[in-house]
């Protein structure tokens, strides 16, 4: 019997075909990547570190404090640095000029957001105003927020801010060792009252717990545009049981927490309104505006937009305000001479028989310099949120590809001063033209934070009230020696100070009477 070799069904031939298919796939993939590489190099791209084939500049970007490495590249490549993360182009803007030129002057094509696969598709943040793609829905969200948080409207919110400031001071007098927890309750209570009409008495409040859990889990899973699946979107289709699918399994847990954070407070307000109970707040006002006939007639689109706006404002305002106030207290502990000078100014203008108000702000220029330096010394969000270029652009004769992720290095921008590592509020007195951090920490162009007026006023009133009523100093060890905390920070999307010891005491017995509510 003549053997004509293996039939089409034999394992040997099947293995040959599979091996051949794999080789073809690899060759075609390499050819495509090489073609893309050569295409990029033929165009005059902005300068940047040389990318490696296939993976680009991934290995050159540190996972901790990348803003510092980007700032170092300013002296090597200039203020506009081009990177490639796998096949995704990225642009780092290290100067105010470049950030304003692109993100502000050309905001019509630089105001989109990248598609954060992990956050949007897998974790449920797609309705958050910070992540909504540029277009009609984005503009609707901005209108919703503007109605409550525009520069004139925030004046009507001062009673909430003043009430919660009084609670904060009373909490600090009662439990001075719980500074971080009291700041957290204060920031959560202020924005929760405005967005949902809810009174937050402690950090055990279920709404606060929902938001903290969602935020903590999200941070643990990776920051925007910093996870592998954001650059290799096909990874989203990896089965959850696969070895490389840990991110997907975690995403399911985070999505549940995020959905609860957006849905439960919203449904609470909706249920109250359906029962005839109406606590004035942003959510109830938006419900009435979208459905004058009643909450039962809200469209699905209206509900998703209102949830997204309210949830975003709570999550964003609580985290960044807490960060700035924590940094302020840390700076005052480390620099007692600054605190004493700010307190002397406060005593001259306000005295010790009342709390400061917004009308006192213009008469407290040194405190203003202190708060500017706080935001410069530890930028709350060092890289802001990424933008996405919607069309091909040319800047300084450089080609910038469509779809490029664009990040303003706010850390680098605010380092452009003498002795940037020092905490020195006097720099703003010596140079009145020095950049005000408030002009950059809230973002740029059409993506600039719409709640910035409220956030700025909340931080100022809290800091001014602490200066007026409390003594902030170093704590002591068992031998009576000062304990000097380290100025270290938890690196992440929002850069919080690490936990630190401090001593906070009321200046007089009259403080409790001044803060009675």
UniProtKB/TrEMBL annotation:
InterPro entries per the UniProt record, alphabetical: Cyt_P450 (IPR001128), Cyt_P450_E_grp-I (IPR002401), Cyt_P450_sf (IPR036396), Cytochrome_P450_fung (IPR050364)
Ranges annotated as spanning the membrane: 16-35
Keywords from the UniProt entry: Heme, Iron, Membrane, Metal-binding, Monooxygenase, Oxidoreductase, Transmembrane, Transmembrane helix
Superkingdom field: Eukaryota
Pfam families: p450
Biological pathway: Secondary metabolite biosynthesis
Cofactor(s) annotated in UniProt: heme
The keyword Heme is assigned to this record: yes
Record family assignment: Belongs to the cytochrome P450 family.
Protein name: Cytochrome P450
UniProt organism field: Lentinula lateritia
Lineage start: Eukaryota, Fungi, Dikarya, Basidiomycota, Agaricomycotina
């Amino acid at each position: 019997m003549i053997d004509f070799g293996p039939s089409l069904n034999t394992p040997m031939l099947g293995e040959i075909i599979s091996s051949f298919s794999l080789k073809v796939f690899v060759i075609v993939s390499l050819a495509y990547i090489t073609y893309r590489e050569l295409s990029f190099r033929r165009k005059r791209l902005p300068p940047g570190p040389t990318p490696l084939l296939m993976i680009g500049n991934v290995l050159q970007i540190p996972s901790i404090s990348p803003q510092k490495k980007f700032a170092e590249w300013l002296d090597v490549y200039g203020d506009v640095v081009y990177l490639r993360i796998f096949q995704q182009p990225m642009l780092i803007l290290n100067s105010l000029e470049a950030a304003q030129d692109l993100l502000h002057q050309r905001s019509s094509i630089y105001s989109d957001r990248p598609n954060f696969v992990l956050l949007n598709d897998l974790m449920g943040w797609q309705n958050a105003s910070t992540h909504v793609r540029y277009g009609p829905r984005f503009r609707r969200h901005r209108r919703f927020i503007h109605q409550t948080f525009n520069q004139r409207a925030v004046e009507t919110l001062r009673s909430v801010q003043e009430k919660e400031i009084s609670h904060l001071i009373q909490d600090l007098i009662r439990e001075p060792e719980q500074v971080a927890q009291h700041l957290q309750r204060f920031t959560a209570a202020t924005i929760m009252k405005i967005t949902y009409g809810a009174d937050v008495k402690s950090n055990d409040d279920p709404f606060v717990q929902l938001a903290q859990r969602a935020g903590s889990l999200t941070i643990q899973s990776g920051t925007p545009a910093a996870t592998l699946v954001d650059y290799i979107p096909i990874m989203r289709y990896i089965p959850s049981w696969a070895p490389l699918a840990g991110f997907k399994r975690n995403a399911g847990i985070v999505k549940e927490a995020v959905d609860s954070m957006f849905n439960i407070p919203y449904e609470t307000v909706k249920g109250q309104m359906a029962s005839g109970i109406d606590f004035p707040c942003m959510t109830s006002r938006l419900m009435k505006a979208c459905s004058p006939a009643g909450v039962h007639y809200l469209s699905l689109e209206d509900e998703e937009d209102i949830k997204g706006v309210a949830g975003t404002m709570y999550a964003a305002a609580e985290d960044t305000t807490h960060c700035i106030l924590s940094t302020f207290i840390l700076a005052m502990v480390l620099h007692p001479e600054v605190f004493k000078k700010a307190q002397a100014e406060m005593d001259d203008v306000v005295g010790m028989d009342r709390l400061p108000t917004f009308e006192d702000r213009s008469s407290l220029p040194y405190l203003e310099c202190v708060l500017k330096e706080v935001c410069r010394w530890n930028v709350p969000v060092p890289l802001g949120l990424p933008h996405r270029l919607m069309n091909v652009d040319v800047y300084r004769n450089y080609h910038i590809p469509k779809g490029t992720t664009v990040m303003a290095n706010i850390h680098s921008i605010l380092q452009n001063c003498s002795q940037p590592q020092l905490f020195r509020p006097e720099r703003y007195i010596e140079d009145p033209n020095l950049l005000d951090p408030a002009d950059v920490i809230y973002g740029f162009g059409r993506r600039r934070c719409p709640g910035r007026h409220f956030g700025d006023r909340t931080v100022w009133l809290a800091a001014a009230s602490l200066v007026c009523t409390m003594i902030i100093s170093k704590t002591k060890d068992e031998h009576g020696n000062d304990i000097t905390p380290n100025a270290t920070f938890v690196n992440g999307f929002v850069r919080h100070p690490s936990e630190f010891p401090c001593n906070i005491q009321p200046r007089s017995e009259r403080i409790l009477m001044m803060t009675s509510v």
